[in-house]
Design goal:
- The chain is mainly beta and about 425 residues long.
- It folds into 3 domains: about 15-230, no CATH class; about 235-265 and about 395-435; about 270-395, Sandwich (Jelly Rolls), CATH 2.60.120.380.
- Helices cover about 15% and strands about 45% of the residues.
- It has 4 helices and 25 strands.
- The protein has helices spanning about 210-215, 235-245, 245-265, 395-425; strands spanning about 15, 25, 35, 40-45, 55, 70-75, 80-90, 95-105, 110-115, 120-125, 140-145, 145-165, 175-180, 185-190, 200-205, 270-275, 290, 295-300, 300-310, 315-325, 330-345, 350-355, 355-365, 365-375, 385-390.
- Strand 11 (about 140-145) and strand 12 form a beta hairpin.
- Helix 2 (about 235-245) runs antiparallel to helix 4 and helix 3 runs antiparallel to helix 4 (about 395-425).
- The protein is rod-shaped and about 120 Å long.
- About 25% of the residues are buried.
- It comes from Mucilaginibacter lutimaris.
- Keywords: Membrane, Transmembrane, Transmembrane helix.
- This is DUF4178 domain-containing protein.
């Protein structure tokens, strides 16, 4: 068992390999019971202070560890020394990963697990006491500290190579492991470990290589590149989604309230709603005689919404409307057209255009006004033009457009988050997305 409740790392101790006499450095000599000779790969046991005994040969490692034995670093508020390196694989598969045994003089062991360039800091109840509240149940999820962890994988882990020192016979261990994820965290449930009749739980925390490299003063270039999405790798898209999904409904409600409040404090009213008789100008092609409307008054600065309507049937009408301030002759000119066509083609009816057109003028000063109208049409028999003007219109179209724009980014973030999660779960046999189209 690891030596704990100390105020600093214990002094290291050198021992001689009983087979090849290579000098092996032990960093926790009182707590270590097994070690590996890096020269002859002997797996050596120290039993109750007796002479070291070779148990068996340990398979040589296939990769050089990124964190060297004896490296010291501070991660998540704890000082750790690297005392072991293990290469593991999932039994009967090709899935392999690496683990670094970390020793802390106060609480004991933790480790870094690295798979496809994704690193996870893993520790047990000595570091996370609430893990002791978890029990061994055959669930597809685990509730821990108000988060739900979903079953991601089940496998039996076997050791394929190792160096360093250990407090248990790791070569005989074949723990049945279940992984439960709630990014950036993961819970490991291990069963059938030697000397344990109950399941052990460990909490993992996704850790960026940059943080590890800085903590252990290691060259970042030595770290393997990331491949794919890690089981507990946090999603930037999820972070964005959770940052906005509660805020956007509030903003939508605020926009709606502002629209309602504006209509209440500055109510819409009609200043003109009239049909005008128009006559064709026989001296000009498609033009009608201009006319002037009766005056109307705006008591204060207002926006004006014009509705122009003409009963066009497979034809068009265009009207240039000039709003004139009778006090200073300041004018605002707009031109709008009304076009409506319909018919039958290949046995089906069709239509396009409209018999109405809308125009909005903003910030028109208070005063007395009239309109100068200049109509033109492809139908010389047209004789009616309807014009209505509303002051202080609440443009609900703008409100809906604003709400739609507010929804676009959350929809985008949600879609990207969902796509990210589907890719994450592609490597799991327990994907909640497997039945999705």
């Amino acid at each position: 068992m690891a030596t704990i409740n100390l105020k600093s790392f214990p002094y290291s101790e050198d021992v001689s390999c009983p087979k090849c006499k290579y000098i092996i450095t032990l960093y926790d000599p009182e707590g270590s019971e097994f070690c590996v000779c890096p020269a002859c790969h002997s797996f050596i046991r120290f039993a109750n202070g007796s002479n070291p005994v070779i148990q068996k040969n340990a398979p040589p490692i296939s990769q050089q560890p990124v964190l060297k034995l004896g490296n010291v670093g501070n991660i998540y508020g704890y000082d750790f020394k690297v005392i072991g390196y293990i290469e593991k694989k999932e039994q009967a598969t090709r899935y392999a990963w690496r683990e670094y045994i970390l020793y802390n003089y106060e609480k004991g062991y933790a480790n870094f697990a690295e798979y496809d360039g994704h690193w996870t800091f893993v520790a047990g109840k000595a570091f996370y006491p609430n893990l002791d509240n978890l029990s061994d149940r055959s669930w597809d999820f685990i509730n821990y500290e108000e988060n739900e962890y979903n079953l991601f994988n089940k496998y039996t882990a076997v050791t394929t190579a190792l160096i360093g020192e250990f407090d248990w016979d790791i070569l005989t261990e074949k723990a049945k492991t279940a992984e439960f994820v709630s990014p950036p965290n993961i819970i490991y449930k291990e069963q059938d470990k030697p000397g344990s009749k109950t399941a052990d739980f460990y909490l993992g925390r996704y850790t960026e290589p940059e943080l590890i490299a800085e903590a252990f003063k290691t060259d970042l270039k030595l770290f393997p590149d990331k491949i794919g999405i890690g089981a507990n790798q946090p999603s930037l898209h999820a972070k964005r989604w959770f940052a906005v999904y509660k805020l956007v409904p509030v903003l939508i409600l605020l926009v709606a309230v502002i629209g309602l409040l504006a209509s209440y404090l500055n109510p819409q009213y009609t200043v003109m709603d009239k049909d005008f008789f128009i006559t064709s100008d026989s001296t000009k092609v498609n033009e009608f005689k201009p006319f002037v409307t009766p005056p109307f008054t705006l008591n204060k600065q207002s926006s004006l919404e014009f509705l122009i309507r003409a009963n066009m049937d497979n034809n068009w009408l265009e009207a240039t409307v000039v709003l004139v301030n009778e006090a200073d002759n300041q004018s605002w000119e707009v031109t709008e057209s009304v076009e409506y066509y319909h018919g039958y083609e290949d046995g089906e009816s069709w239509s396009e255009g409209s018999q109405e057109a809308n125009v909005l003028l903003s910030a028109i000063p208070a005063g007395k006004y009239h309109l100068n109208i200049y109509p033109a049409s492809g139908d010389v028999t047209a004789n009616n033009l309807h014009i209505s003007i509303d002051a202080n219109p609440v443009i609900w179209r703008n409100v809906w457009v604003t709400i739609l724009l507010l929804c676009l980014y959350p929809i985008y973030a949600w879609a990207r988050m969902r796509n990210y999660e589907k890719k994450r779960w592609m490597s799991s046999d327990y994907s909640p997305y497997e039945t999705d189209d």
